[in-house]
Amino acid sequence: VEYTEEDPKPKIEEDCKPHCVKEWAAYKACAERIKSDTTGQAHCSGQYFDFWHCVDHCVSGRGASSHHAAPEQLAALTQAAPKIMAALK
């Protein structure tokens, strides 16, 4: 898929983040709790996933209404898996 104009996804994601403050706060609280973990077993992937799920839910709604996105563009807008996997590495 080749886009002729700038990808709106990053801007839409930034606009959606304020709608997910509860999920972001849960992630930050978890990150703070596990700072002292010496086992390397503690993680906050669940909270991180919840945050991006919230953002994606918001993005998908905005993509359909404000940008008149095609189905393949909506699919591209709502895929947070690469970000999640990169953060977990």
From TrEMBL:
<keyword id="KW-0813">Transport</keyword>
<protein>
    <recommendedName>
        <fullName>Complex III subunit VI</fullName>
    </recommendedName>
</protein>
<dbReference type="InterPro" id="IPR003422">
    <property type="entry name" value="Cyt_b-c1_6"/>
</dbReference>
<dbReference type="GO" id="GO:0006122">
    <property type="term" value="P:mitochondrial electron transport, ubiquinol to cytochrome c"/>
</dbReference>
<keyword id="KW-0496">Mitochondrion</keyword>
<keyword id="KW-0472">Membrane</keyword>
<comment type="similarity">
    <text>Belongs to the UQCRH/QCR6 family.</text>
</comment>
<dbReference type="Pfam" id="PF02320">
    <property type="entry name" value="UCR_hinge"/>
</dbReference>
<dbReference type="InterPro" id="IPR023184">
    <property type="entry name" value="Ubol_cytC_Rdtase_hinge_dom"/>
</dbReference>
<keyword id="KW-0679">Respiratory chain</keyword>
<keyword id="KW-0249">Electron transport</keyword>
<dbReference type="GO" id="GO:0005743">
    <property type="term" value="C:mitochondrial inner membrane"/>
</dbReference>
<dbReference type="InterPro" id="IPR036811">
    <property type="entry name" value="Ubol_cytC_Rdtase_hinge_dom_sf"/>
</dbReference>
<feature type="domain" description="Ubiquinol-cytochrome C reductase hinge">
    <location>
        <begin position="7"/>
        <end position="60"/>
    </location>
</feature>
<keyword id="KW-1015">Disulfide bond</keyword>
<keyword id="KW-0999">Mitochondrion inner membrane</keyword>
